[in-house]
Amino acid sequence: MKRAAWWIVAAVVVVAVIAVGWWGYRQAKDFEALARAGKADASAALKSLEGGDTAAALAGFDKARDEFSRARDLLGPSWLRGTWWLGDQLDAADDLATIGVEGSTAGAEGVRLLDEASAVTGPDRLGRLLTLARPRLDASLTSLTVVADRYDRLSADGLVGPLAEAVTDARDRLAPLRPLLARSDALLGLERYLYSGQHRFILLAQNNAQLRPTGGLPGTYGLVEIGPDGLRLDTFADIYTLPNDTLNLPIPDGRQVNSRHLFFRAAGWWMDFPTSADVMLRLWGSMDQPQVDGIIAIDLPTIRDLLKVFGPIRVPESDTAFTSENLIERLNYVVQVELSGQGLDGKKTAVVSLARTVMERLLRLGDDEFLPTMESLASSANDKHIQLYVTDPDAQADLVAAGWSGALNPPADTTDLLAVSNAVIAPPAKGNLDVAKALDYAVTLNDDGSADTRLTLDYRKSARNVLGRFNTQFSNYVRVHRAAGTTRTGGAVDESLTDATGLPTFARSLDVGLGEHVTTDLRSHVPHAVRAGAAAPVPGLSVPVPDATGAWHYRLVVARQADLVDTGLSVSVQVPKGWTVVASTAWLRNSGEVLPTTVAGDRVTLATPLSQDVLLDVTLRRP
C-alpha cells in the first residue's frame, strides 16, 4: 500500500512538473510573440513620427505599450523571481518588457505634446505651450528615468539563447540614447524645478568678438520669467544703463580693461561659469535690482543658429537684414562702424533691437519651427553657447549633471585636466573676429605614474579686416587651468595665479596682428596622471573595460570655451616603455559622440574640433 502511494505521489509530481513546464513554455512563446509585436509597432511609430504622421505614431506607440504590458503580465507571480536560474530569466524578461512599456509611454507623451503644440497659436505661443506641456513632459521624463534604470541592469550573462539575443539587441538599439538616458533624472529634476513656481532670470547676451572666459563681454541684458504661467521677457536693455554696483570688489588675479574694480558687465572672468555667475549675482544684488533666481548666458552663435530656423531678421538700425551667414560680422559692423558716432548708449540700440526681435520670434514659433528650435537650443547648451546658473542648490546640481552649467566638472577618476581660457583684454575691442585657434597637448607618461606635458597654443588672425581700427589686433590674455597638483616646468608664462576656481592656473599676454601667426607653449608636470585600476564608467558615455585585471588608467578632460569658432584639438599620449595600451576611447562629453583615437605602438593620438568638453580614457597595463 505504501509502495502504491509513493508511485501515486511521484506520478502527480511528474504530471505537475510537465504541466508547469508546458505552461512556462506556452507563456514564454506568448511573451516572445507579444514582445516582438511591441518592438515592431514601436519601430513603425518612430518611422511615422519621422515622416510627420503623428496620428499613426501615437497609435503605434499606444499599441506597443499595450503589447509590452500584456507580455509583462505573462511573467507569473513575483515569488518565482526568487528561484534559482528561472528568477534571472524572469528578471531579464521583466526589464525588457518594462523598457518597452516605458519607452512607448515616453514616445506617446511626446507625440501628444506635439499635437497639442500645433493647436496653440498667437503671439505668446511658446509661453502658452510651456504652460500646458507640464504633464506631458513630466510623464515622458519619468518614463525615461525608468528606462535608464532598467537599461543599466541589462546583461545577457546566464540567459537562455533567445532571451540573451533580445537583451543584446535592446542594448544595441538603446546605445545611441545612453547620454540622454543618463541625464533623464537631472532633466526631470529641472522640469519640476521650473514648474514649481515662476522664476526670474537675468538673460545676458555675450559678444564673442570681444572674447571673455564665459564666452564674451555682455553688451545687453534682460529679465525673463519662466514657470507654470509661461514665459515672459520683462525688459531688455543696454548693460551700460545699469547703475554701478556698491561692493567695490577688487580686480581678481589677472588683467582687465579700464577697471579699477570688478563691474557686473566684466564679472564673467572665470571659465567655470558657476564661479563667474556667483560673483555676478553678488554684484547684481548690490545695485537695487529685482531679485532673480539665476542667470542665463547666450552668445552670438546661439542667435546665429536660431536664424537658421527663423530666416532673416530686420531691425531699424540696419538697412541689411541679419542672416545666419552675416550675423556676427554684420552686427559688429553696425555697432562699431555705422553707429560709432552715436556714443556708448546709441551704439547698442541695434543689439537691443536684435535681441528683442529674436525673443519675440521665440515666443511665436510656427508649427514647423518648434522642433528645429528646441534642437538648436539644446545643441547650443551642449556646446556652451548657452550656460545656466540657478541659486537653488538641487536644481544647480541637476544643471551640472545635465551638462548645461558651464562648470569645470571633471568626472570621477579624472587624472588630468586642461582648460584654456582666452580673453580680449585691451583695445581693439572686437579683436577676436577672424581668429583661428589650435591646441596641441603632448603627454609623456612616466613609470612612477606622473606625466610630463607640453601644451602648444596656436593663434592665426586673418589679414582680412572689415571693422577697421576695431579689429586690427587680437590682444589676448590666456589662462591655462590644470589639474590639482600640476606644476609648471617651463614655457612662455608671465605669471602663476591663485585662481577662484581653485585650480593651478598659468597666464600669459600675447598680441596677434592682422595676418600674423603666433604660438606659445607651457610645459607642466602632473604628479598623479596614471592611477591603479580601470577608470570608473562615466554615466551615458564609457563602459567597463572587459579586461581590466591589473589595469591602470589615464583620464583627461579638455574643457571647451565658448567662442566664435571651434578650437582645433590634438592630443598625443606616450606610454612608458614596456607598458601596453589595453583600450583608448574619447567622447564629446554632452552629446556622447565617440571620437576616433589611434593607437600606434606605445602612443595614443586624438584629433578633433573642440566643439564640446572632450573626455579621453586610456587604459594601460604595466609590465
Provide an overview of this structure:
Helix 3 runs parallel beside helix 5 and helix 6 runs antiparallel to helix 13. The protein folds into three domains: 183 residues; 204 residues, Aminopeptidase, CATH 3.40.630; 206 residues, Immunoglobulin-like. Strand 11 and strand 12 form a beta hairpin. The protein is α+β, with helices and mostly antiparallel strands and 623 residues long. The protein is globular, with a radius of gyration of 29 Å. Strands 6, 9, 11, 12, 14, 15, 17, 18 and 21 form a nine-stranded mixed β-sheet that branches. Helix content is 39%, strand content 25%. About 3% of the residues have low confidence.
Q: What is the number of helical segments per DSSP (H or I, 4+ residues)? A: 13
- Poorly predicted runs are 5-25
**CATH 2nd-level architecture of the largest domain:** Sandwich
Rg for CA atoms: 29 Å
Q: What fraction strand?
A: 25-35%
Give the integer mean of the pLDDT values.
89
SS content category: alpha+beta
Key terms:
alpha+beta; single chain; Aminopeptidase; Immunoglobulin-like
Nutshell version of this structure?
This protein is an alpha+beta fold and about 625 residues long. Helix content is about 40%, strand content about 25%.
What is the topology?
Blueprint lengths: L1 H49 L3 H20 L12 H33 L6 H29 L7 H14 L3 H17 L4 E9 L9 E11 L2 E9 L34 H13 L8 E6 H11 L16 H12 L4 H5 L1 H15 L6 H13 L3 E5 L2 H10 L13 E6 L13 E11 L5 E11 L11 E10 L4 E5 L3 E4 L5 E10 L3 E10 L4 E2 L18 E9 L7 E8 L5 E9 L5 E2 L1 E4 L2 E8 L3 E8 L2
Parallel strand pairs: 1-4, 6-15, 7-16
Antiparallel strand pairs: 1-2, 2-3, 4-5, 6-9, 7-8, 8-13, 9-12, 10-13, 11-12, 14-15, 15-21, 16-20, 17-18, 17-21, 19-20
